[in-house]
Write a structure and sequence with these properties.
This protein is of the alpha/beta class. It is built from five helices and eleven strands. The strands form three sheets. The chain has a seven-stranded mixed β-sheet with strand order 1-3-2-8-9-10-11, with helices on both faces. Strands 4-5 form a two-stranded antiparallel sheet. A two-stranded antiparallel sheet has the order 6-7. The radius of gyration is 15 Å and the shape is globular. The two termini are 27 Å apart. The structure holds D-malate.
């Protein structure tokens, strides 16, 4: 399997599996405390980005901050999608019950999975995502709940872009909850708590 990762079996292999996707410079251990908060019983698949930017793991290349290498993003999105299929076979979890939790660059690759595939994710928690790419027709995302944690003063993702992402996903049929914070690009305790509360309302 072509991604460094860790898998932790929860109380029910047939239940939900949380797919953890870290921010730039992170690794597969970073978001484990979030998974524990969101659903301590779930299986966890935590994946390290395959791209290195001066030694910092990422999920796809960028040309500069906020400017993505779109061809690489597309290729890496498929690579991750294929990895998820392989991981489900290897570990025996239910492929149709993957819930992404991504932060920053990890939220952007999760967003790209949603933009490309109808069945990549059952639901997604996106902390400080951007619009991953434009000029693409989104698949039918009916019945896909998506939580977006955004910042009114996020220097990496301006509020208009968070609104745009929310609208694009909503127009594709997703049930979007857009939650605003005022802590720049940081993932704050209140945002995390909102995501936990949101997840608890889902029936997965
Ligand atoms: C990205 O490159 O995905 C975004 O700029 C967020 C980040 O800094 O990772």
């Amino acid at each position: 399997m072509n991604h460094k990762h860790l898998f932790k079996e929860g109380t029910d292999l047939a239940g939900p599996t949380l797919l953890l996707l870290h921010g730039t410079g992170g690794n597969e251990h970073d978001l484990l405390p979030l998974a524990e908060r969101v659903n301590p019983d779930a299986n966890v698949l935590s994946v390290r980005g395959n791209v290195s930017e001066n030694g910092m793991p990422r999920y796809f290349r960028r040309l500069e901050e906020g400017v993505f290498d779109i061809e690489d993003l597309k290729r890496r999105t498929k690579e991750l999608y294929d990895f998820l299929d392989d991981a489900a076979k290897e570990y025996g979890f239910d492929r149709s019950k993957l819930v992404a939790i991504g932060y920053s660059n990890g939220a952007n690759i999760a967003g790209s999975l949603l933009f490309h595939y109808k069945d990549a994710l059952k639901a997604a928690i996106l902390h400080h995502p951007m619009v991953p790419l434009r000029d693409i027709e989104l698949p039918d995302l009916t019945n896909t709940p998506v939580f977006i944690g955004a910042g009114t003063n996020d220097p990496i993702c301006p509020p208009e872009e968070s609104e745009e992402l929310s609208t694009l996903l909503h127009d594709a049929g997703a049930q979007v909850k857009l939650h605003w914070e005022h802590h720049g690009h940081q993932l704050s305790a209140t945002e995390l708590q909102e995501a936990v509360n949101w997840y608890k309302e889902l029936s997965i």
